[in-house]
Write a structure and sequence with these properties.
24% strand; Alpha-Beta Plaits; 26 strands; Aminopeptidase; four-stranded antiparallel beta sheet; elongated; alpha+beta; six-stranded mixed beta sheet
Length: 548
Amino acid sequence: MLRIHGPLVRSVFLICELAHYFRFRDELTIHRRTPGHFGNVGPPFDHCHFQPQCISGHDRFAKARVLNSNEQHQFSLTVGDILQDQHARRLRHGLNDEHSRHHREARKMPAKKWLVERYVLNGNDALALHLNDPVHKQKWVTVRQNALNLMDIENRHETCYYRTPRVNTLDPILSYLRSHEPERIALIRQFVECESPSDDAAAVNRFGDLVATRLRGAATVRTIPGGRFGKHLLCEMRLPGRRTSDQILVLGHLDTVWPLGTLRSMPFRHSDGRLWGPGVFDMKAGIEFFLFATRALRELDLPVKSRVMLQLNSDEEVGSESSRALTEKNAAQSKAVLVLEPGTGLEGKLKTARKGVGDFQLIVRGTASHAGVDFESGASAVLELARQLARVSAFTDLKRGVTVNPGVISGGTRSNVVAAEARAEIDMRVVRLRDAAALERKFRALRPLDRRCSIELYGGLNRPPMERAAGTVRLFRLAQKLARELGVELQESLSGGGSDGNFTAALGVPTLDGLGAVGEGAHAANESIVVSRMADRAALIAKLLAAL
């Protein structure tokens, strides 16, 4: 028995007598414009996959019918069965050859036909196609279908004509990843429950060791010292295919913003179609996606032309102080960089541009005095800082994507003391590198309004902007094309946040970011990923590696 399931029925087709061990896979399609003809036509059929299964191994007839049960969006279809007069095992008089996996065009076959009763389609968005007559080695195959148009079935002088949409099999990578979903969820849980805050090198190293263990046999793994942070991982993947001299760098990070013990109040859970937990979205799921993407390439023996290097940094959430040089070195040797950071929004938009990120510390020093007894002799650092922040706030230019945010201020000791010192931590973001230079000049030009005070300024641009360059756009267009093969329409976005992809893009290396999980709540209590998007995201990573 062959059963087809799908979240949304868009296409229906009929399978009648099938040859012994006849298999549907890869880009095989069925198309009947004249009675009894098979053909390879059209591009692959989105989200429909027949795993190699034995359909009929006996000289018996198979009856096909279409079933569904849900009451919403019901529709009816009359289905015809064709009974082949010859042996089902080989269809000797119908096929051009007798190969058991025959899928070339067949000649018109003697057959008789009848129409079976009507069946209602729907049932939790499932389409069931049953081969009901007694046959040997019956199998169930679960597949997914995306909506196309229904076929027409007509009765014309005892001959059934089938007008079908283009049909193709489910992408084999997508099928593989879906079939391993429980195992994948278990691995993501293992990753999330291995907490790895940036400021705890030992914890980050534990997670790095866990990832390295999962890569055993699949990659050559090296650890790179991270100074006061954890170790970085550099992994050369072992993948099928002959290598060229080209290299693809894949970037991720091991650290999270969540302190040790967060799991007590925010445990991992699987509910409401999502996975929840600290670091699941940013970006432990992204690491899992890559691991299973490369595993799919190996197990399906799909060739990858370029050398693939995975670099997982230990300090991305705190500025990439120790990993930046390593990232830039490996990026300079690569023709493309893929970044496993999460996508934008619940649409999972890829990131073709990111703002550059910097920070300044503005320190004002004044003169302390008693606020009641000797007020006039004091010079308030707090008041001077307030005046300076009014100036700084005017540096924001939303039309150009320039923002300046004094996020933290402090100063003074007591309310009855004129403050001798005050300071502010200021965040800056720019879309274009030239705007960063102009903004820095404005900060450096600050002078005290109260000449009894002095100003000190530290900091600057930390991550250069990832500008939407031509090479990155080409990468995105390729990703769009590959995603359409998976039934997904990709969009792009500009992100206000930075990543290690900012460093690589600034070197002029084509960089595509946001290839990780689809979800929301980065650095927030509602951090979560959408389970139904796990397969297509990992499949896209695999297809990009194979295509580049």
